[in-house]
Amino acid sequence: MSMSGSLAAGAAPGKVILFGEHSVVYGQPAIAAALGHGLGATVESCDDGPWLRIPRWGSEGLEVRPSVDGKGDAMCSAFALALRMTDLSLDAGVRVTVDGQLPLGVGLGSSAAFAVALLRGLADQQGQQLSHQRLSEGAEAIERIFHGNPSGLDHTVVITGQCLHFNRGETPRFREVQLGAELPIVIAWTPRAGTTREAVAQLKARRDQCPVEYDELFGAMGRLADAGAAALEAGDLQRIGTLFDLNHGYLNACGVSSPANEKMVHLARSAGALGAKLTGAGRGGASIALAPDDPNRVVEVLREAGFDALFTTVR
Ligand code: MEV
Q1: CATH class of 183-314
Q2: What is the pTM of this model?
């Protein structure tokens, strides 16, 4: 393969759901913020493209071609869609590498960040700048390939880079939540059992058995998300921590927690965090802890227990 030397790039942050995962699928509000960690896509010209490489995907890394007919695995279909959305043909001479510091596949918005970074990188290659609407349509379509019927929260936060209050509905509604104080957040993660799509389907099956009870629970989770938005705006860390704990209890009642999530939140609280919860789809994956006093101690305790962990500030 020879390179012509031209280089284009796109980037996107990950996201963290602070309140309201899963209940958001049932029309309740959720709050999510962009992370300092993200993914980048670099696009080079090549003779035998198109290629997509994700060096950190799985243990071996991943290298795929776009699927020509919509067949093939999700990544091949997503790549084909991104090429089409940016007016590139399925034999375009491009080689895309997606990489970054965001942990992949643990509920921190890596699929949305992948979609947005890929679309931005390919658009840059074409000398285009995608409008918010076009980017949103493309990212949503790619998220659908990976997750079935996503709420739209992830890719909207990833595109705007803001903290957002989100209501799904016929027309999704977003408003920016202006944080009254920076949030010192420790994130710990572990591999997930299954996909977001499966976690959402599993909760739907539970809800179908007990619709009245679960709809009441989702309503309580929605009120908690609104209370969380107000506490975030007031910068009331103590209250945000308590609301994290409450939200985690509700998610446990939804059946989406796991022994690993329970261990992470327990360890973080014992190490001095003001509150902790799982974030994203659950069944493993990431948990977050609000740790203003000694975040490094919380990271250390989580790492000693064998989890990956990092300290970040959400602004
Ligand atoms: C996944 O990050 C969040 C869920 O609420 C699904 C969604 O919002 O699409 C579990």
Answers
A1: alpha beta
A2: 0.89
